[in-house]
Amino acid sequence: QLSCLLRMVTLHGIPKDLDSYPKELLLFLSPSAYAATGSCSQYFSNIGRADLHVLPRESPRRKELLLEALACLKVPGAQINEETAEILGHLGCDLGGQYIRASGGPLLKHLSHCGEFLPEQEEAIRDVLSSGNTTFGPPAAWSAFTLRELSGFIPVFDHSILQQIPK
Question: Which domain of life is it from (predicted)?
Fold first, then answer.
């Protein structure tokens, strides 16, 4: 339906007020087509606020969007900084374990809203949290406040993390 709606909206070219349409509509528009109304970083910022569940998690289009976003934002290697994580928004939930490990805390903050993770992502999140090299510190120093901050990751905790958390 969204793809069909996009065809109708863009029948006579890309409208200047495209940003006022539902963000999910942009999931079916190419970044180059959007370029007429704004920058690619603006496009991916809008995509990052869209409901990505419109596209299946492992769909080719969703993977393509992530790769295009990383190219647009000129991400060097696998390290995602705070600003890039902010722009990626929900699209950041599809980043692989290598990005999570390389980026650490700045990316974790943005991943806490993802809800579910692939096994590779879960392992990377555990590695980063176990290392203690985040603003949360090592699990042995976590408080009730820290656990509230990390609530999106609690299903990812394994025995080795859980046993370190003070009672």
Answer: Eukaryota
Domain count, the chain: 1
In a domain? residue 8: yes
Of 42, 40, 49, the residue nearest 22 (C-alpha): 49
Convert the pLDDT of each residue in 69-117 to its tens digit.
999 999 988 999 999 999 999 999 999 999 999 998 889 989 988 988 9
d(CA 23, CA 123): 31
Cβ–Cβ under 8 Å, residues 100 and 111: yes
* pLDDT tens digits for range 32-79: 766 666 688 888 998 899 988 888 888 898 999 999 999 999 998 899
Residue 66 is part of which domain span? 1-118
Question: What is the 8-class DSSP label of residue 151?
Answer: G
Is residue 102 assigned to a domain? Answer: yes
Cα–Cα distance measured from residue 75 to residue 87, given in angstroms and rounded to the nearest whole number: 12
The span from the CA of 103 to the CA of 84, in Å, is 11
140, part of any domain: no
Domain-embedded: residue 155: no
**pLDDT tens digits, residue range 116-166?**
899 999 999 999 999 988 889 999 999 999 999 999 999 999 999 999 999
What the block records as the tokens of 115 is 């809800």
User: What pLDDT is recorded for position 15?
Assistant: 64
